[in-house]
Write a structure and sequence with these properties.
- The structure is a single chain.
- The chain is α+β, with helices and mostly antiparallel strands.
- It has helices at 2-32, 48-51, 222-249; strands at 35-38, 57-60, 63-68, 73-77, 82-86, 96-103, 112-118, 121-123, 148-153, 165-170, 176-186.
- The strands form 2 sheets. Strands 1, 3, 4, 6, 9 and 11 form a 6-stranded antiparallel sheet that branches. The chain has a 5-stranded antiparallel sheet with strand order 2-5-10-7-8, with no helix packed on it.
- Residues 14-31 and 193-227 have low confidence and may be disordered.
Amino acid sequence: MKTVVKSRKFTASLLLALALMLVMSLTAMAADDDLVYDNYDRATLSDFASSGANAAWTGGDAGKSASIDSNALKLEFGSSGWFGTGGGIDASQYKYIVIRAKGAAGGEGSAFDLNYAVGDQVKTIGKAFADLVGPSGDKVPAITKDYQNIVIDMKGNGIESGIQAFHFNFHDGASGTLWIDSISFTNNAPKEPAKDNGAATKTDEGAAAPVAEPNPKTGDTMNTSLYIALAAVSGAAALFLVFKARKANR
């Protein structure tokens, strides 16, 4: 009878240990998944439910207008206009903001500030979008006429993790058109494109080499290494507990 009770205790301990390890692994993996704030895959700006957006409201005048254009947010901005969008999100586990954007002329990042809100309090970063820094500590790439993922380092720009809203504040005298395809949070920093120093990279034939668009799911290997380590520790612990349980039954 004592042997049976002891065996059951070891079995219960084994199951509890495995359950705890599974919870730890899932918690780490959850922070590795991107949090999509808004992808604008809808017909109208206010129809948040149809695209499964985490954003829940929009406001401002953008100087001229804000609308949905080909499943992207289109901001036609004029002097001193602004646009805001917010929702009840928890970005506390994320390092980077990824804004997929393009402009009508290129260089629109110097025409506005990206501010944010925590609760009802609006926070000012204090510099133009073009002067924000990415994961490498360098300035983010300039907005161009083609879509690209612009990665913003939250800690590097002093952005609090409790962020729940974005505010685009356009400068006096500035005007133009900006498209935002999506806004998301991630821990995996996409590889930043090479800086344009005024000369295109050439191939052996003399043609300009294409610049690969960064992939938001690659780049940072830290989380992959973490999962491998967790799997190794979990496996070793499970084998040890099984060995102990079998030994107790002898």
